[in-house]
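Chapter review. Work through the record for Ribosomal protein uL3 glutamine methyltransferase before attempting the end-of-chapter questions.
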Amino acid sequence: MEKTPQLADIEDLLTIRDWLRYATSRFTEAGLVFGHGTETALDEAAFLILTALHLPIDQLEPWLEARLTISERRRLWEIVTARIETRKPAPYLVGAAWIRGHRFAVDERVIVPRSYIGELLDGGLSAVVADPDGVERVLDLCTGSGCLAVLMALTFPDASVDAADISAGALEVAAKNVSDYGLEDRVTLHRSDLFQGLQGATYDLIVSNPPYVTAAAVAAFPPEYAAEPELAHFGGADGLDLVRRILRDAPAHLAPGGVLIVEVGMARDLLETEYPDLPFLWLDTEQSDGEVFALSAEALTAR
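C-alpha coordinates for Ribosomal protein uL3 glutamine methyltransferase:
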Protein backbone atom coordinates (compact mmCIF):
# COMPACT_ATOMS: atom_id res chain seq x y z
CA MET A 1 0.00 0.00 0.00
CA GLU A 2 1.39 3.39 -0.99
CA LYS A 3 2.24 5.64 1.90
CA THR A 4 0.50 8.98 2.23
CA PRO A 5 2.78 12.02 1.83
CA GLN A 6 2.48 12.74 5.55
CA LEU A 7 3.65 9.30 6.66
CA ALA A 8 6.38 9.24 4.03
CA ASP A 9 7.71 12.56 5.23
CA ILE A 10 7.89 11.59 8.90
CA GLU A 11 9.20 8.05 8.43
CA ASP A 12 12.85 9.14 8.66
CA LEU A 13 12.31 11.61 11.51
CA LEU A 14 12.84 9.18 14.35
CA THR A 15 14.41 11.15 17.19
CA ILE A 16 13.97 14.50 18.85
CA ARG A 17 17.28 15.55 17.27
CA ASP A 18 15.79 14.74 13.84
CA TRP A 19 12.73 16.85 14.57
CA LEU A 20 14.77 19.70 15.99
CA ARG A 21 16.78 19.91 12.77
CA TYR A 22 13.71 19.49 10.57
CA ALA A 23 11.60 22.13 12.34
CA THR A 24 14.48 24.61 12.45
CA SER A 25 14.99 24.22 8.71
CA ARG A 26 11.29 24.57 7.94
CA PHE A 27 10.88 27.65 10.15
CA THR A 28 13.93 29.33 8.63
CA GLU A 29 12.79 28.53 5.10
CA ALA A 30 9.33 29.96 5.85
CA GLY A 31 10.75 33.21 7.20
CA LEU A 32 8.80 33.06 10.43
CA VAL A 33 8.93 35.91 12.94
CA PHE A 34 9.74 35.14 16.58
CA GLY A 35 9.63 37.08 19.84
CA HIS A 36 6.94 35.28 21.83
CA GLY A 37 9.33 33.68 24.27
CA THR A 38 11.95 32.65 21.69
CA GLU A 39 14.20 34.64 19.39
CA THR A 40 15.49 32.07 16.87
CA ALA A 41 14.15 29.25 14.73
CA LEU A 42 16.15 26.75 16.78
CA ASP A 43 14.73 27.95 20.09
CA GLU A 44 11.22 27.99 18.63
CA ALA A 45 11.61 24.41 17.43
CA ALA A 46 12.88 23.29 20.83
CA PHE A 47 10.01 25.04 22.61
CA LEU A 48 7.33 23.43 20.45
CA ILE A 49 8.86 19.96 20.53
CA LEU A 50 9.43 19.84 24.29
CA THR A 51 6.04 21.31 25.10
CA ALA A 52 4.15 19.06 22.68
CA LEU A 53 5.87 15.99 24.15
CA HIS A 54 5.26 17.10 27.76
CA LEU A 55 8.98 17.23 28.50
CA PRO A 56 10.73 19.74 30.80
CA ILE A 57 10.93 23.01 28.91
CA ASP A 58 14.48 23.72 30.09
CA GLN A 59 15.96 20.28 29.35
CA LEU A 60 16.68 19.47 25.72
CA GLU A 61 19.99 17.62 25.85
CA PRO A 62 18.84 14.46 27.72
CA TRP A 63 16.13 13.77 25.15
CA LEU A 64 17.90 14.42 21.84
CA GLU A 65 18.35 10.75 20.95
CA ALA A 66 14.93 9.66 22.23
CA ARG A 67 12.97 7.84 19.52
CA LEU A 68 9.38 8.91 19.01
CA THR A 69 6.28 6.87 18.42
CA ILE A 70 4.24 7.28 15.26
CA SER A 71 1.55 9.20 17.16
CA GLU A 72 4.16 11.55 18.64
CA ARG A 73 5.66 12.14 15.21
CA ARG A 74 2.24 12.91 13.78
CA ARG A 75 1.65 15.38 16.60
CA LEU A 76 4.92 17.16 15.89
CA TRP A 77 4.16 17.21 12.16
CA GLU A 78 0.83 18.87 12.88
CA ILE A 79 2.37 21.53 15.15
CA VAL A 80 5.29 22.35 12.85
CA THR A 81 2.93 22.60 9.90
CA ALA A 82 0.45 24.72 11.84
CA ARG A 83 3.19 27.13 12.95
CA ILE A 84 4.11 27.73 9.31
CA GLU A 85 0.64 27.78 7.78
CA THR A 86 -1.18 29.82 10.44
CA ARG A 87 1.74 32.04 11.54
CA LYS A 88 0.25 32.00 15.04
CA PRO A 89 2.66 32.48 17.96
CA ALA A 90 3.97 29.13 19.16
CA PRO A 91 2.41 29.43 22.66
CA TYR A 92 -1.07 29.58 21.11
CA LEU A 93 -0.46 26.27 19.35
CA VAL A 94 0.42 24.45 22.58
CA GLY A 95 -1.69 26.54 24.96
CA ALA A 96 1.18 27.48 27.23
CA ALA A 97 3.84 30.12 27.85
CA TRP A 98 6.56 30.43 30.48
CA ILE A 99 7.93 33.33 32.50
CA ARG A 100 11.00 32.61 34.61
CA GLY A 101 10.15 28.92 34.88
CA HIS A 102 6.45 29.44 35.62
CA ARG A 103 3.90 27.99 33.20
CA PHE A 104 0.79 29.93 32.19
CA ALA A 105 -2.17 28.94 30.07
CA VAL A 106 -2.67 31.17 27.02
CA ASP A 107 -4.90 31.42 23.99
CA GLU A 108 -5.96 34.05 21.45
CA ARG A 109 -7.92 35.99 24.10
CA VAL A 110 -4.67 37.28 25.65
CA ILE A 111 -1.30 38.58 24.56
CA VAL A 112 1.46 36.01 24.96
CA PRO A 113 3.15 36.77 28.34
CA ARG A 114 6.64 38.20 27.95
CA SER A 115 6.85 41.20 30.26
CA TYR A 116 10.22 42.31 31.61
CA ILE A 117 8.44 42.88 34.91
CA GLY A 118 8.39 39.10 35.33
CA GLU A 119 12.18 39.10 35.56
CA LEU A 120 12.10 41.99 38.03
CA LEU A 121 9.62 40.10 40.21
CA ASP A 122 11.94 37.10 40.14
CA GLY A 123 14.41 39.34 41.95
CA GLY A 124 11.79 40.53 44.42
CA LEU A 125 11.77 44.05 42.95
CA SER A 126 14.68 44.68 45.28
CA ALA A 127 15.55 47.97 43.60
CA VAL A 128 12.31 49.58 44.76
CA VAL A 129 10.83 47.34 47.50
CA ALA A 130 12.97 47.65 50.63
CA ASP A 131 10.63 45.67 52.89
CA PRO A 132 8.83 42.82 51.09
CA ASP A 133 7.00 41.91 54.31
CA GLY A 134 5.43 45.37 54.30
CA VAL A 135 3.74 44.80 50.94
CA GLU A 136 0.13 44.01 51.85
CA ARG A 137 -1.94 45.08 48.83
CA VAL A 138 -0.82 44.97 45.21
CA LEU A 139 -2.46 45.62 41.85
CA ASP A 140 -1.72 44.21 38.41
CA LEU A 141 -3.23 46.70 35.97
CA CYS A 142 -3.95 45.37 32.44
CA THR A 143 -3.44 41.86 33.76
CA GLY A 144 -4.16 39.93 30.53
CA SER A 145 -3.40 36.28 31.27
CA GLY A 146 -2.93 37.10 34.96
CA CYS A 147 0.74 36.06 34.86
CA LEU A 148 2.08 39.10 36.70
CA ALA A 149 -0.69 38.87 39.30
CA VAL A 150 0.28 35.26 39.98
CA LEU A 151 3.97 36.13 40.13
CA MET A 152 3.27 38.98 42.56
CA ALA A 153 1.29 36.64 44.79
CA LEU A 154 4.22 34.23 44.79
CA THR A 155 6.77 37.01 45.36
CA PHE A 156 4.83 38.63 48.21
CA PRO A 157 3.15 35.71 50.00
CA ASP A 158 1.47 37.91 52.63
CA ALA A 159 -0.10 40.29 50.10
CA SER A 160 -3.59 40.32 48.63
CA VAL A 161 -3.59 40.91 44.87
CA ASP A 162 -6.08 42.68 42.63
CA ALA A 163 -5.82 42.04 38.88
CA ALA A 164 -7.73 44.29 36.47
CA ASP A 165 -8.39 44.17 32.75
CA ILE A 166 -10.98 45.64 30.39
CA SER A 167 -11.29 42.37 28.44
CA ALA A 168 -13.76 39.78 29.70
CA GLY A 169 -12.02 37.10 27.62
CA ALA A 170 -8.64 37.93 29.13
CA LEU A 171 -10.09 37.66 32.62
CA GLU A 172 -11.39 34.18 31.81
CA VAL A 173 -7.84 33.11 30.94
CA ALA A 174 -6.51 34.86 34.04
CA ALA A 175 -9.03 32.99 36.19
CA LYS A 176 -7.66 29.68 34.92
CA ASN A 177 -4.10 30.67 35.74
CA VAL A 178 -5.06 31.88 39.20
CA SER A 179 -6.85 28.58 39.77
CA ASP A 180 -3.93 26.54 38.42
CA TYR A 181 -1.70 28.09 41.09
CA GLY A 182 -4.31 27.69 43.83
CA LEU A 183 -4.44 31.43 44.49
CA GLU A 184 -8.19 32.07 44.35
CA ASP A 185 -8.21 33.20 47.98
CA ARG A 186 -5.51 35.82 47.40
CA VAL A 187 -5.97 37.07 43.82
CA THR A 188 -9.18 38.92 42.92
CA LEU A 189 -10.01 39.66 39.30
CA HIS A 190 -11.78 42.88 38.26
CA ARG A 191 -13.19 43.92 34.91
CA SER A 192 -12.06 47.52 34.75
CA ASP A 193 -10.90 50.16 32.28
CA LEU A 194 -7.66 50.92 34.09
CA PHE A 195 -8.61 52.32 37.53
CA GLN A 196 -12.29 53.02 36.79
CA GLY A 197 -13.59 49.90 38.51
CA LEU A 198 -11.26 50.25 41.49
CA GLN A 199 -12.58 53.41 43.09
CA GLY A 200 -11.37 53.88 46.66
CA ALA A 201 -8.79 51.09 46.53
CA THR A 202 -5.18 51.86 47.43
CA TYR A 203 -2.09 49.72 47.04
CA ASP A 204 1.47 49.40 48.28
CA LEU A 205 2.53 48.32 44.81
CA ILE A 206 0.99 48.80 41.37
CA VAL A 207 2.53 47.10 38.33
CA SER A 208 1.33 47.43 34.77
CA ASN A 209 2.31 46.18 31.35
CA PRO A 210 -0.26 48.24 29.43
CA PRO A 211 -0.75 48.50 25.67
CA TYR A 212 2.05 50.80 24.47
CA VAL A 213 2.61 50.05 20.79
CA THR A 214 2.25 52.97 18.37
CA ALA A 215 -0.49 53.00 15.75
CA ALA A 216 2.08 52.79 12.94
CA ALA A 217 3.80 49.78 14.49
CA VAL A 218 0.49 47.95 15.01
CA ALA A 219 -0.43 48.58 11.37
CA ALA A 220 2.89 47.03 10.29
CA PHE A 221 2.70 43.96 12.52
CA PRO A 222 3.80 40.63 11.01
CA PRO A 223 1.20 37.85 11.22
CA GLU A 224 2.56 36.49 14.52
CA TYR A 225 1.92 39.78 16.34
CA ALA A 226 -1.29 40.51 14.46
CA ALA A 227 -2.64 37.19 15.80
CA GLU A 228 -2.70 38.67 19.31
CA PRO A 229 -5.57 40.90 20.51
CA GLU A 230 -5.01 44.38 19.10
CA LEU A 231 -6.51 45.77 22.30
CA ALA A 232 -3.50 44.41 24.19
CA HIS A 233 -1.03 46.24 21.95
CA PHE A 234 -2.57 49.50 20.70
CA GLY A 235 -1.45 52.50 22.71
CA GLY A 236 -2.58 55.28 20.39
CA ALA A 237 -0.65 57.37 17.90
CA ASP A 238 2.53 57.54 19.97
CA GLY A 239 1.83 54.51 22.16
CA LEU A 240 1.37 56.43 25.40
CA ASP A 241 -2.40 57.00 25.65
CA LEU A 242 -2.86 54.51 28.50
CA VAL A 243 0.44 55.34 30.16
CA ARG A 244 -0.64 58.98 30.48
CA ARG A 245 -3.90 57.91 32.12
CA ILE A 246 -2.01 55.67 34.53
CA LEU A 247 0.32 58.50 35.53
CA ARG A 248 -2.66 60.80 36.00
CA ASP A 249 -4.75 58.46 38.14
CA ALA A 250 -2.18 56.36 40.01
CA PRO A 251 -1.61 58.87 42.85
CA ALA A 252 -5.17 58.32 44.09
CA HIS A 253 -4.53 54.57 44.31
CA LEU A 254 -1.08 54.45 45.90
CA ALA A 255 -0.73 54.17 49.66
CA PRO A 256 1.93 56.32 51.37
CA GLY A 257 5.30 54.85 50.47
CA GLY A 258 3.75 52.97 47.56
CA VAL A 259 5.42 52.37 44.20
CA LEU A 260 4.17 52.37 40.61
CA ILE A 261 6.01 50.17 38.06
CA VAL A 262 5.12 50.38 34.37
CA GLU A 263 6.55 48.79 31.23
CA VAL A 264 6.59 51.25 28.30
CA GLY A 265 8.77 49.73 25.59
CA MET A 266 10.95 52.23 23.76
CA ALA A 267 9.15 55.34 25.05
CA ARG A 268 11.74 56.49 27.58
CA ASP A 269 12.86 59.61 25.68
CA LEU A 270 9.30 60.66 24.94
CA LEU A 271 8.22 60.22 28.56
CA GLU A 272 11.18 62.09 29.99
CA THR A 273 10.56 64.95 27.56
CA GLU A 274 6.84 65.12 28.34
CA TYR A 275 7.24 64.73 32.12
CA PRO A 276 10.51 66.53 32.96
CA ASP A 277 9.47 66.94 36.61
CA LEU A 278 9.01 63.21 37.26
CA PRO A 279 12.10 61.39 38.63
CA PHE A 280 11.71 58.18 36.64
CA LEU A 281 13.79 55.30 37.97
CA TRP A 282 14.54 52.99 35.04
CA LEU A 283 14.76 49.32 35.96
CA ASP A 284 16.97 47.41 33.54
CA THR A 285 16.81 43.65 33.09
CA GLU A 286 18.97 41.06 31.35
CA GLN A 287 17.07 41.69 28.11
CA SER A 288 15.94 45.30 28.38
CA ASP A 289 17.42 48.73 28.92
CA GLY A 290 15.17 51.62 29.94
CA GLU A 291 11.84 49.93 29.17
CA VAL A 292 10.39 49.73 32.71
CA PHE A 293 10.09 52.67 35.08
CA ALA A 294 9.32 53.04 38.76
CA LEU A 295 7.88 56.08 40.53
CA SER A 296 7.12 56.55 44.20
CA ALA A 297 3.75 57.70 45.46
CA GLU A 298 5.43 60.79 46.86
CA ALA A 299 6.98 61.72 43.49
CA LEU A 300 3.64 61.36 41.72
CA THR A 301 1.78 63.29 44.41
CA ALA A 302 4.30 66.14 44.40
CA ARG A 303 3.80 66.55 40.69
